[in-house]
Amino acid sequence: MDSATVLSIGIAAVVIAVTGFSIYTAFGPPSMELEDPFEDHED
């Protein structure tokens, strides 16, 4: 394969992995540990 193709596939894989991890962190089990700073300081 061309080096440009390998680089493109590598960048695409990294972007997909980061997106998947972000979705897992936002909506998966780790989301229970997230805090909303606006709810902490209600009047």
Provide structural commentary:
- It is built from 2 helices and no strands.
- With 43 residues, it is mainly α.
What structural class should be given to the helix and strand makeup?
mainly alpha
Share of residues in helices: 55-70%
The outline comes out as rod-shaped
Mean pLDDT: 89
The total count of helices amounts to: 2
Written as H for each helix and E for each strand, in order along the chain, the element string is HH
Radius of gyration based on Cα positions: 18 Å
* Strand fraction: under 5%
Described by strand count, sense and barrel closure, the largest sheet is: none
Give the N-to-C terminal Cα separation. Answer: 61 Å
- Strands, count: 0
Low-confidence stretches: none
Summarize this structure briefly.
With 43 residues, the protein is an all-alpha fold.
Task: Please outline the helices and strands.
Layout: H1 3-27, H2 37-40
Essential attributes:
single chain; 43 residues; mainly alpha
